[in-house]
Amino acid sequence: SVRNDGKLAAMATLCCETDFVAKSDDFISASEALNNYILACPSDNGIEELLKTTDTNGKEFSQLLTETVSKLGEKMEIGDYARFEIDGSGLIGLYVHFNGKIGSMVEIHTSDDAAASNPEMKQMAADIAMHITAIKPIALDESSIAAEVIEKEKAIAAEQVKNKPANIIDKIVEGKMRKFYAENCLLAQGFVKEEKKTVAEVLAQVAKSAGTTAAVKRFVRLEIG
């Protein structure tokens, strides 16, 4: 479930044992309530612990969850979750797939608040969240990928061409890494709705049309199962 209050948004997964319970009104209500509790937490850190002491309408989420478990007779637990809060101007895009099991959240900073409320920018943020859900980037850009992941990919690429002349191997590995970055870094990926342009290019284009500049600061993709 998700909730977006403009500059503060939450996305979380609540897990149960069967699809039957997952489709029940009580479970859906508890899932939606989870985001309200996450947004009510005074900090982004240690939300799972803070949920034990944060209450809305005089009730902590642990109490609500216990009541829901008792009513439905099935084990439930909090899965993955994320909370984004923008300090400055910007907006948060959210997307949840129709099956309710996959979703993404993206934080975009803009030059001012007026630009962040522009309908084109709001649609762009939602579209990028949809892109993330569908294409599964592992990082924002090349600099965001862990060094060990890069070294592992380089080693794999080098192993694939180990029988080539030494002076050619480096060039081939470099080419393979460029392809790896283009396939796995959000800003370098071909945009899902316009594959001939990268996500960065499409965002810049929409931002310019809205009279602003925009930059993706972070994203998260949650999936159940």
Radius of gyration: 21 Å
How are the strands of the biggest sheet laid out side by side? 1-2-5
Order of helices and strands: EEHHHEEHEEEHHHHEEHE
Counting DSSP H or I runs of 4 or more residues, the number of helices is: 9
Mean pLDDT: 89
* Category from helices, strands and their pairing: alpha+beta
* Poorly predicted runs: none
Helix % is 40-55%
Work out the strand percent. Answer: 25-35%
In total, how many beta strands?
Answer: 10
How far is the N terminus from the C terminus? 15 Å
- Shape, please? globular
The major sheet is characterized as: 3 strands, antiparallel
What would you note in describing this structure?
With 225 residues, this protein is α+β, with helices and mostly antiparallel strands. Helix content is 45%, strand content 25%. It has 9 helices and 10 strands. The protein has helices at 19-22, 25-40, 47-50, 61-72, 113-116, 119-135, 147-160, 166-184, 199-209, and strands at residues 2-4, 8-15, 55-56, 59-60, 77-85, 90-96, 102-110, 190-191, 194-198, 214-223. A 3-stranded antiparallel beta sheet has the order 1-2-5, covered by helices on one side. Strands 6-7-10 form a 3-stranded antiparallel beta sheet.
